[in-house]
Specification:
Blueprint lengths: L7 E5 L6 H11 L3 E3 L2 E3 L13 E3 L2 H9 L3 E7 L2 E6 H9 L3 E5 L2 H10 L4 E6 L3 H10 L5 H16 L6 E4 L3 H16 L6
Parallel strand pairs: 1-7, 1-8, 2-7, 3-4, 8-9
Antiparallel strand pairs: 3-6, 5-6
The chain binds guanosine-5'-monophosphate (5GP).
Length: about 190
């Protein structure tokens, strides 16, 4: 039998694409998958906790970590800085765990240069209209921010060709099962490119 392989799992989608919901379901269903908590300079939203959703840090702290090489990748997204901790990823893999990253397309490109063995998945919203509706329904951003995020979404959709897998994020449970199946296949060496 081939040895099971562990690797990072990148899940990207435009803001409002439903990634966090998908990631939560995946974590519930497979205890071998950990979540990579990113560092960000964005202020926390009302329902977010430091150390759970993100590590919320100042720009100065972020710059220091960047200088120290603490990030495996980092990017400026929607006007704020976000970065993936090298230590978090290395720890997970050394404990023989998968680790799921919810990061943007620019960060993914950088990450894949460092760790090409990662599985990268891009979630498409069923349509731009539905994406706009989802952004409005979550009530976390004002109209200006929503329009800014929609403009970025168009760029991200156009910049997704290098992902391993594309899925349409229509039915959460179906998307979750597809991702888990893909992880299993790749881990057992039956990944078909
Ligand atoms: P939000 O502010 O809505 O939580 O996230 C905004 C965007 O930043 C999302 O597309 C999310 O995937 C991305 N993001 C979150 N953490 C990271 C990270 O560590 N690195 C990069 N490159 N993007 C991230």
């Amino acid at each position: 039998m081939t040895q099971k392989k562990y690797f990072p799992i990148i899940v990207s989608s435009p803001s409002g694409g439903g990634k966090s919901c998908i990631c939560r379901e995946i974590l519930k269903k497979n205890k071998d998958i950990l979540y990579s908590i990113s560092y960000t300079t964005r202020p926390p939203r009302e329902n977010e906790d430091d150390g759970k959703d993100y590590f919320f840090i100042s720009k100065r702290h972020f710059r220091k970590m960047r200088r120290n090489g603490d990030f495996l990748e980092w990017a400026k997204v929607h006007g704020h800085y976000y970065g993936t901790s090298r230590k978090v990823i290395e720890n997970a893999l050394s404990q023989e765990k998968f680790i799921i990253l919810d990061i943007d397309t620019k960060g993914t490109k950088k990450f894949l240069k460092r760790m090409p063995e990662a599985l990268s998945i891009f979630l498409f919203p069923p349509s731009m209209k539905i994406l706009e509706k989802r952004l409005k329904n979550r009530n976390t951003d004002d109209e200006k921010t929503i329009q800014f995020r929609l403009r970025n979404a168009r760029k991200e959709l156009a910049d997704s060709w290098y992902y391993d897998l594309f899925l349409i994020n229509d039915e959460i449970s179906i998307v979750v099962d597809k991702i888990l199946q893909e992880v299993k296949n790749k881990s057992e060496g039956i990944y078909l490119n």
